[in-house]
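A reminder from the course coordinator: this example appears on the midterm review sheet, so study it carefully.

Given structure:
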């Protein structure tokens, strides 16, 4: 009895596919079939037949399985069955209980191993560390709450009074002397400044306390250092600084008059600003002059080419008036201007313009320009035109007799030296025999092989000793002499040509049709993916080109193309709009020579002009500063501590007003306002070439 073999594939719970194997599985009922070599010859023959049939069945089964594993193969038969139920299977609850028992046994076996004990010890250590950290955090929080509770209770008991033992914020005032001079001035970092107050022994306590109160808001600024200078010991250094800032002249300095002066030193930039109660910049409150407030909100329209500008302000007489728009100007809404800055003219387009409202008619003559080629010369401002039907292009090209003499000439151009040399067989200089000095004739016929990378060369000459010797070439290499290689780096292959190569020795057969293309010219257009062809015998090229007479008027025209708006403007010397002169309004000539100092960050500007009222007057700042630092004519040192001496004035000393009385406690009243202007950058700066040494007394 033999068994049949079937392969079943369950695609879905109710659908299966199957296929039968053509071979049957052999069966041997005798016990000697299991023996390899039975003793009985008859039994041995039966065993051999059984093994052969078994091997054939195995091979057929393997081939069938390999075929069915391919994605393109399907099984031969298909059947639909009902869902199969495992009658001996367990219930869901029983399966879950069995699975849990299995996992429990596996866990117990895993815990008994050496690795499980190591993992448990690591986990226990981590848990202990986390528990200790949490305990410490909890104890710290409890301690902080206890301390805060006790602090609140003490405050309530003391009636919310301040504890004098608590640290108070402070700001140090350094004394500027020789020992600290390098740290406060010379070695100060870029961007840092030192604010120095000049005091004496009498006013030291009063002025320092007020100075400390004024500069207290700036204590957290890391770029500021605050110091004070004793005028009794270091007045010479202050006099030397003033002398360097004012040109090096001799100065008389009264130490008593310098008390209350504040210097803002910038050691890196080598300049300083000065404050004193009698200083012109510090005596007055920081008021903006009325005239300058009129410029706030002004708008300037600058024209660099014409060197003039227009101004707009809300209170300007011309701008304050209501703007009357003439009725005709409303017609310009929607107009498009094509400006030509180089030629100083423009063209206008509007939907209701008479020329623009009409439909665009293309004259019949313009169709003759299709296929024309323009050769533009921007430098010479002219162009040449070519068309197949143009009379000049249709005629055969006649070369004037004089130009035939240049055929065969060779030009050697030297762009760097801006000259050239010419060679022609019939040129007088070239026709004469060339006289070569005897020594130089030995080099004629030499060949140099230069190697720029290695910076050496090799030379070849027929009479050279090394070159005169016969060159021994191996027999095999002589076959390659005269070969030509065509290399293709992209495809990584090459082609070879040799006179004796079998493929090269055969005559090249050219098809008859291809000889008609010799002399053709192709004009390729990669964007449009098309091309135009020209040939002397082409029917369209053989016809003469007719140019209409009206097209000659366009010679010398300039087109300004606007690809975005798809329109253009034209310029011509004989055009009516281009022939008119450009009129410049007379008022704009008054601005020539003006200088503007623009401050983009602050959004303001200053103006200079030779005829401006503020610029035409002489500079009286020095004399005003000297008089304001006053003290009357009786004091010869009035204002001398900043380097300005009193000059003779038209008014007498008796007519001069008495200076206001300035008490010591009022010397620093304007310091807060001056510090604001200092950090704004609006104070005057006095520059020095170097910082003088400070000697110890």
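Designed residues:
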């Amino acid at each position: 009895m033999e068994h049949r073999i079937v392969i079943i594939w369950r695609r879905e719970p109710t659908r299966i596919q199957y296929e039968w194997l053509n071979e049957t599985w052999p069966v041997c009922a005798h016990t000697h079939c299991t023996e390899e070599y039975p003793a009985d010859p008859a039994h041995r023959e039966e065993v051999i037949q059984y093994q052969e049939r078994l091997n054939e069945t195995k091979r057929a089964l393997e081939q069938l399985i390999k075929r069915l594993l391919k994605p393109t193969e399907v099984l031969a038969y298909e059947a639909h069955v009902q869902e199969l139920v495992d009658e001996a299977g367990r219930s869901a609850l029983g399966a879950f209980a069995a699975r849990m028992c299995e996992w429990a046994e596996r866990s117990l076996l895993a815990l008994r191993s050496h690795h499980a004990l190591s993992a448990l010890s690591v986990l226990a250590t981590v848990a202990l560390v986390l528990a200790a950290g949490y305990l410490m955090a909890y104890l710290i929080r409890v301690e902080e709450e206890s301390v805060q509770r006790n602090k609140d209770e003490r405050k309530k008991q003391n009636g919310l009074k301040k504890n004098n033992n608590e640290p108070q914020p402070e700001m140090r005032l350094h004394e500027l002397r020789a020992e600290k001079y390098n740290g406060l001035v010379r070695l100060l970092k870029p961007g840092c400044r030192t604010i120095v107050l000049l005091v004496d022994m009498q006013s030291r306590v009063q002025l320092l306390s007020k100075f400390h109160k004024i500069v207290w808001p700036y204590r957290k600024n890391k770029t500021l250092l605050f110091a004070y200078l004793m005028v009794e010991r270091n007045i010479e250094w202050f006099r030397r600084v003033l002398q360097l800032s004012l040109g090096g002249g001799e100065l008389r300095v009264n130490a008593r008059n310098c008390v209350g002066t504040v210097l803002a030193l910038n050691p890196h930039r080598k300049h300083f600003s000065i404050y004193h109660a009698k200083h012109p910049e510090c005596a007055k409150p920081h008021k903006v002059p009325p005239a300058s407030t009129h410029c706030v909100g002004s708008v300037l329209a600058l024209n660099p080419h014409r060197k003039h500008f227009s101004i707009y302000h809300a209170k300007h007489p011309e701008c304050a008036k209501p703007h009357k728009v003439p009725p005709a100007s409303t017609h310009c809404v929607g107009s498009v201007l094509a400006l030509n800055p180089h030629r100083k003219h423009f063209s206008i387009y509007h939907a209701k313009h008479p020329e623009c409202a009409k439909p665009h008619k293309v004259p019949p003559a313009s169709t003759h320009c299709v296929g024309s080629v323009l050769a533009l010369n921007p430098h010479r401002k002219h162009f040449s035109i070519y068309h197949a039907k143009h009379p000049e292009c249709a005629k055969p090209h006649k070369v004037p007799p004089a130009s035939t003499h240049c055929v065969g000439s060779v030009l050697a151009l030297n762009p760097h030296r801006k000259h050239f040399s010419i060679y022609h067989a019939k040129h007088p200089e070239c026709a004469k025999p060339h006289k070569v000095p005897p020594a130089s004739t030995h080099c004629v016929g030499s060949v140099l092989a230069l190697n720029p990378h290695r910076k050496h060369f090799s030379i070849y000459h027929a009479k050279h000793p090394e070159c005169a010797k016969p060159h021994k070439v191996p027999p095999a290499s002589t076959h390659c002499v005269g070969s030509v290689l065509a290399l293709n780096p992209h495809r990584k292959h090459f082609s070879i040509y040799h006179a004796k190569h079998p493929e090269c020795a055969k005559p090249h057969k050219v098809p008859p049709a291809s000889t008609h293309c010799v002399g053709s010219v192709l004009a390729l257009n990669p964007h449009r993916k098309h091309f135009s062809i020209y040939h002397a015998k082409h029917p369209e090229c053989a016809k003469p080109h007719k140019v209409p007479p009206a097209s000659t008027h366009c010679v010398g025209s300039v087109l300004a193309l606007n690809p975005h708006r798809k329109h253009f403007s034209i310029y011509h010397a004989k055009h009516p709009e281009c022939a008119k002169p450009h009129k410049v309004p007379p008022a704009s000539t008054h601005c020539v020579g003006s200088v503007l100092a623009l401050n983009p960050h602050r959004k303001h500007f200053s103006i200079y002009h030779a005829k401006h009222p503020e610029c035409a007057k002489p500079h009286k700042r020095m004399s005003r500063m000297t008089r304001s630092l006053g003290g009357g004519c009786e004091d010869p040192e009035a204002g001398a501590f900043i380097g300005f001496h009193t000059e003779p004035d038209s008014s007498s000393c008796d007519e001069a007003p008495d200076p206001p009385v300035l008490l010591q406690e009022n010397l620093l009243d304007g310091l807060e306002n001056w510090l604001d202007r200092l950090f704004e950058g609006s104070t005057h700066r006095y520059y020095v070439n170097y910082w003088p040494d400070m000697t110890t007394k």
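The two ends are 134 Å apart (CA to CA). The mean pLDDT is 79.
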